[in-house]
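Running this now, will post back.
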Amino acid sequence: MADIYQMPPNTAFDPIFDMTLGPMPLWLLIMVVLFLCIMLTNAWWFIKFFIMAPVRGAGVASSARGVKTQQAFMFAKNRSFSIQALEYIDGILSYKDPIMVSKWMLTSPTCVGKVGFKPVLIASDNFDCIRDPVAEMAVCRIAKEINEHNTDVQVTNNTDFMNLIPALENAYPEGIPIPIYALYSPDEVQKYTPRNRSAGMFGAMLLRM
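Update: finished.
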């Protein structure tokens, strides 16, 4: 039995790493601690990756080269918010993923803003055109003023607003005044936008054509 515990020739215990701390030597304890640190670091980065997933498009758009990649703030029907990197071709924006058929029309250059020196658009999945925050604030403001100060005419939907456009153009030839500081709500204008014009239907129409 004594031969079992004999040291091989020309070998010796390391005075530090072969030191026994409890049930395991020091070198094994160091390996276990390093393994746990690596696992915890990976878990932390995975959690951070999933938390930041809704704004991943900002990094994709910033690192992309060329004019075909466009950063867009996306507001969904369930009031969720995300930053997407959309593909821009001939005034049409769409996802780079062919499975996602939603498409948006860029109807005016005034819809394009800048965030962090990068151009950005605002879009939503229930309307097939790029959102114009200034125009939407003007629509909501004038509709609110009409509903508060006029009992005969009320603006409750897109048809009511379209019928009032000639009168509004005469009353405000230079445009509707908006306060320099005004809150923008992407949901407030929904009742004044045309129905049945979702981005998904627009993309499906193009696929059928």
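Helices lie at 26-51, 56-63, 133-149, 158-171, 199-208. More later if anyone needs it.
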